[in-house]
C-alpha cells in the first residue's frame, strides 16, 4: 500500500508541468510525503518491537531446554518406552565353496598356533550372521552390542562396549569387549572386507579379528590432517593370547595413524601398531606334522609380541567414488614368540613332551580394488608369510619339525552391488599355505544388510 502511495505521489509530481505548479500543489505534495514517512516509521517501530519479543522468547526457550538437559543428565533413566529406541541391523552372509583340497586337513605350515586357518567349507554354507544394536545411553555415553551367529549356529558376543560422547580435547574412551585398533583390517567386520576371507597374515597372527575385554583410549589431534594415537589394556583372552586367570592386564596394544587428502582426487592413511600378550599354562593348540609325517597337535604357551605397519591409498576423480575409484592397501606384521612348546598335546600318539620354543616370523599382503562401473568392482590380492627362524628345545628336536617354507596365496575377485545394502561376489584363490599342496578355491558369496547400519570407517 505504501509503495502504491509513493508511486501515486511521484506520478502526480511528474504530471504537473513545471510552470503550472502553485503553492497549493507544493503544500499538498509535502503533506502526502510527510504522511507516508510517518507510516513507514510506525511500521519500523512495530517490526522492531516484534523482533525484540522474538529474541526474548528464544532466550527463554534456550534456558528451558538447558534446564531440561540438566535434569535429564541428573536422571538418565528413560521417561517412557519410546525413550529407548536403539538402531538395529542384521547382516546376512553366505557362500558356496569349491575346494580342491580337504578343508579338514588344512593348516598353515610352520606357524604355531595357526590362528584361524580354516579356508572355508565345501558346498553351500551360511557364514557369520551379525546382529547389531546401538544407541546413546545418556548425554555422555553410547553403547554398542554385536552378536554373531557362526555357521555351526553358535552365538557369541563379538563386541559389547560403552563409548564416551563429547569427552573433549579430542579424547574418546571405550570400555567393554571390542575389536582392537591395531593394523587396518582388524577393526573391520567380515562383511565389510573386499574379499571373501582375511589375508593369511591376519589369520595366522590375529585369528581373523583380534578382540579383547578391556579399555581403549584414543586421541585425535586438532589439526587439518588426521593424527590419531591410541592405547589399549585388555585381559588377553583371545589368540594370540589366552586367558591367564590372573589379576592385571594380559595384553597391551598401541597404535598411531596419520592421513589426509592430496588434492581433490587422492587420500591416504598410514599407521603403526604393536601388541604384546601372553598365554597361560593351558596355551594354544594347533595342528602340525612331526618329523615322521604324522598329524599331531602341538601347543604353545608363552609371550607373543607383534609389530605392524599399514597403509591405504584411495583415488576417486574429483572426489566422486560412485562412477570409478581405485583403492590400494597393504599390511606387514612381524611376530616374536618365546615360551614352551608341548609336542603331542592331546596325547593321541602317547609321546607328549614339553620344552622351550622361540620364533621370529613375519607376513604381509598387498591388494588393489578397482571400481570400473557404479555397481561393479574387481580386485587382486597377494598374501605371503615368512617362516623366519624357529628355535626348538633339545628334547623336542627329534619330534617337532622346522620348516624352511613360506606359505603364500593369490586371489582375484569380482563383485556386483545392486544397491548399498547388498553385494554378490565371485572369488578364486590359489592357496599354497600347506607345504606340498596347492588348493584351488572357488567361492560365491552374498552379503545383505537389513535395517539401520552405520557408515564404515575409512
Write a short abstract of this structure.
The chain is of the alpha+beta class and 458 residues long.
Q: Any overview of this molecule?
A:
The protein is an alpha+beta fold and 458 residues long. The chain has a single domain, classed as Porin, CATH 2.40.160.10. Helix content is 16%, strand content 48%. The chain contains 3 helices and 18 strands. It has helices spanning 2-15, 23-74, 200-206; strands at 87-99, 123-126, 129-138, 141-149, 155-164, 171-179, 211-220, 226-234, 251-262, 266-278, 284-289, 295-315, 325-343, 353-373, 376-392, 408-419, 422-432, 439-451. It has a 16-stranded antiparallel β-barrel. α1 (2-15) runs antiparallel to α2 (23-74). The longest helix is centred in the first third of the chain and has 52 residues, at 23-74. The two termini are 59 Å apart.
Structural descriptors:
Porin, 3 helices, 18 strands, 458 residues, alpha+beta
Amino acid at each position: 500500500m505504501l509503495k502504491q502511495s509513493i508511486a501515486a505521489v511521484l506520478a502526480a509530481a511528474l504530471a504537473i508541468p513545471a510552470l503550472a505548479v502553485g503553492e497549493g500543489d507544493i503544500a499538498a505534495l509535502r503533506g502526502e510525503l510527510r504522511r507516508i514517512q510517518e507510516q513507514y516509521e510506525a511500521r519500523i517501530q512495530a517490526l522492531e518491537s516484534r523482533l525484540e519479543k522474538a529474541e526474548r522468547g528464544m532466550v527463554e526457550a534456550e534456558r528451558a531446554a538447558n534446564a531440561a538437559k540438566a535434569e535429564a543428565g541428573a536422571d538418565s533413566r528413560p521417561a517412557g518406552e519410546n525413550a529407548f529406541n536403539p538402531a538395529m541391523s542384521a547382516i546376512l552372509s553366505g557362500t558356496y565353496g569349491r575346494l580342491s583340497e580337504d578343508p579338514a586337513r588344512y593348516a598353515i605350515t610352520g606357524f604355531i598356533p595357526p590362528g584361524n586357518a580354516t579356508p572355508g567349507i565345501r558346498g553351500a554354507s551360511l557364514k557369520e550372521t551379525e546382529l547389531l544394536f546401538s544407541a546413546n545411553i545418556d548425554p555422555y555415553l553410547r553403547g554398542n552390542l554385536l552378536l554373531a551367529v557362526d555357521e555351526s549356529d553358535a552365538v557369541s558376543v563379538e563386541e559389547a562396549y560403552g563409548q564416551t560422547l563429547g569427552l573433549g580435547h579430542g579424547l574418546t574412551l571405550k570400555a567393554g569387549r571390542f575389536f582392537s585398533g591395531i593394523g587396518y583390517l582388524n577393526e573391520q567386520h567380515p562383511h565389510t572386507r573386499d574379499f571373501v576371507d582375511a589375508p593369511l597374515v591376519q589369520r595366522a597372527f590375529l585369528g581373523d579379528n583380534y578382540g579383547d575385554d578391556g579399555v581403549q583410549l584414543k586421541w585425535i589431534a586438532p589439526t587439518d590432517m588426521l593424527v590419531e594415537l591410541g592405547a589399549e589394556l585388555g585381559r588377553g583372552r583371545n589368540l594370540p593370547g589366552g586367558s591367564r586367570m590372573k589379576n592385571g592386564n594380559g595384553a597391551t596394544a598401541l597404535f598411531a595413524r596419520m592421513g589426509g587428502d592430496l588434492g581433490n582426487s587422492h587420500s591416504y592413511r598410514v599407521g603403526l601398531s604393536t601388541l604384546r600378550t601372553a598365554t597361560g599354562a593351558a596355551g594354544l593348540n594347533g595342528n602340525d606334522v612331526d618329523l615322521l609325517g604324522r598329524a599331531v597337535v602341538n601347543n604353545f604357551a608363552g609371550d607373543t609380541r607383534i609389530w605392524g605397519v599399514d597403509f591405504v591409498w584411495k583415488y576417486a576423480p574429483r572426489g566422486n567414488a560412485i562412477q570409478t575409484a581405485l583403492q590400494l592397501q597393504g599390511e606387514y606384521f612381524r611376530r616374536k614368540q618365546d615360551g614352551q612348546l608341548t609336542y603331542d598335546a592331546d596325547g593321541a600318539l602317547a609321546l607328549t613332551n614339553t620344552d622351550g620354543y622361540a620364533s621370529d616370523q613375519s607376513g604381509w599382503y598387498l591388494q588393489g580394488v578397482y571400481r570400473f562401473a557404479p555397481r561393479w568392482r574387481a580386485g587382486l590380492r597377494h598374501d605371503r608369510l615368512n617362516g623366519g627362524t624357529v628355535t626348538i628345545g633339545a628334547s623336542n628336536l627329534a619330534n617337532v619339525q622346522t620348516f624352511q617354507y613360506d606359505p603364500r596365496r593369490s586371489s582375484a575377485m569380482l563383485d556386483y552391488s545392486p544397491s548399498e545394502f547388498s553385494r554378490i561376489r565371485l572369488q578364486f584363490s590359489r592357496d599354497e599355505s600347506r607345504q606340498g599342496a596347492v588348493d584351488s578355491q572357488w567361492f560365491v558369496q552374498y552379503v545383505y544388510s537389513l535395517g539401520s547400519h552405520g557408515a564404515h570407517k575409512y
